[in-house]
Amino acid sequence: MLYTTNPPTTRADFPILSTEANGHPLIYLDNAATTQKPVAVLQALDRYWTTQNANVHRGVHHLSQVATRLYDEAREKARVLLNAKSTAEVIFTKGTTDGINLVAASLSLSEGDEILLSTMEHHSNIVPWQLAAGKVGAVVRPIPITDEGEIVWDAYVDLLKSGRVKVVGIVHVSNSLGTVNPIKEMARLAHEAGALILVDGAQAAPHTLIDVQDLDADFYTLSGHKLYGPTGIGVLYGKESLLNAMPPYQGGGDMIRVVTFERTTYADLPAKFEPGTPNIAGVIGLGAAVDYLSSLGGKPSGNLRNDLGAAFAEIERYEHALLGYATEKLSKIDGLTITGTAREKAGILAFTLRQAHPHDIGTILDQLGIAVRTGHHCCQPLMRRLGVPATARASFAFYNTFEEIDRLADGVESITEMFA
Ligand code: PLP
Check: CATH 3.40.640.10 for 43-291? Predict the structure, then answer.
């Protein structure tokens, strides 16, 4: 197959990509762990700290008004990114983990309620539910997956029949397999069964344009740092009626209306779920990342959602080409098994080698300047299901190149020879 497709961006936008690792030009293929940051985001952060730093929603003075405006504008950008109906539905969190913990802790669960989680969930979408279930005697039930890494559909349908399912927690794109789960259909079935659905979008948001209304997700979480923005910032989307019915997760300043020692009343959404001084720089950095992404689709149209649509069409096209090329190249290597061969995949390619342990693969590739992730990828139940202790994982972003994949394949090939 010929791969002539062009990336939607220039690598010069990402200064770190011109650095070296262990004496070799850096090849960064650990994008599922975190993505690199474009100059536009770095400049927005620098500008904020050097010229705009103040607390938000508190001061009448100039700087506070500037910071508040930028903060509120970023919330509107996040709303557009997810296509939420209102900014009341956009809660800023520390990240995906924080968002799931918020929902698991605040949702009203009772003894005997069932929480369905797929076998491919990240620990972030397992442990918070176990903690919440343990407090009231609710039950966590795994949804099985096939050897290829897809939901066993009949089993999902059967599990929903119990009449006790309160919530389904499902990863949109698996960080370990690359599987793209059929969220819209899963949400439809969950709702028919009277259950809510929480979607872990940590790995989906960087690869595809999310539409929470079209998916009919009740909750959707993402992490800014996987979306070319800073660490320590994320978004929890929740349907307004559900968020209104949930008690606050944490208490403090900014989330209240009136406080007395007898009783406190809470602020409206989204402030109700954002106590204390927020990560203002992180929010502004995330807004800058959304702006940057929206510029990748060509000429701006003046409509952010349309620009994001055009940009993500380019991102998906290019990343699919990278994934196809990498799959083709790596599967030719003797002793290599690809973990996760679902029909729908995003830019994640995990593998094992007959000749070498994943940890050795990661260490040797690192010596060649190639950054991949090895281990259980925070998915121990999945590793158990697959019968492997760990895998090596290359995860792609739109700034990666076909030449980098050639280097990866050469590196893996050399490992098989070394361990033969
Ligand atoms: N869910 C998935 C699928 C992930 O890949 C990750 C991070 O790797 C998380 C959740 C947790 O994200 P964070 O650590 O940003 O909260």
Answer: yes
